[in-house]
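User: Okay, second chain of the day. Same drill as before: sequence in, structure tokens out.
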Amino acid sequence: MANDLLKGKKGIIFGALDERSIAWKVAERAHEEGAQFVLTNAPIALRMGKIKELGEKCGAEIIPADATNNEDLTQLFEKSMEILGGKVDFVLHSIGMSPNVRKKKHYTDPNYDFYHKTMDISAMSLHRVLSTAMKADAINEWGSVVALTYIAAQRVFPDYNDMADAKALLESITRSFGYHYGVAKKVRINTISQSPTPTTAGSGVKGFGDFLAYAEAMSPLGNADGGACADYVLSLFSDLTRYVTMQNLFHDGGFSFTGVSQKTMEMVGLGQDEG
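Assistant: Same drill. Structure tokens below.
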């Protein structure tokens, strides 16, 4: 049910590819809640995905932009403000890709050119987005920036590879830039650490299906799906969370604070007392 939670707000949504994308679901919900926004993704992703369909559904213009290219980002913010008629109130950073994962390179023996690309695309891009927005004074006071992350930034998930390092950097940028942007313009910056979600990117991780089942068994509330994540993102875009910033917020059904569950013990043949 829509409640006009974002009525009058304007934004930019990075990373929608297809219906499985969390960014896609955020766009649908933001539209339902009264927001106006532009959609953006890398030119190659625009050719591969179905973003035009989403743009038509939400009445949103699409601006190609490589988030690792400062000139592209400058043009993105300039054109977005022109289209939307002023500064934006929210930005979603839903960007992540690892060539080492795609090429099945082991974490201990990566291609370091690939490693650099992972960092640039998946983490440094957030710094570029924030720096560009600040220089252009493109985000209104009390605006909100949300980036999507994963618990592998804090704990070891072997097959998450160098994406874990990228997410750790992403969260650090959130804290550091969150301080500076907060002092300068009252802009808040947070990350959401989502349950494993069967997006196009997530499904490419080795053993993803098995891990999805494991996380479901570990989480007291079960895995949070992409639609529920979109609702959480919208709460951070709204005025209801004006004093929340520099946080990594877990949205994972309790997975992050569960040491072990009865279900997981039963999965490995434990959990039954002998007698």
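The mean pLDDT is 94.

User: Thanks, on to the next one.
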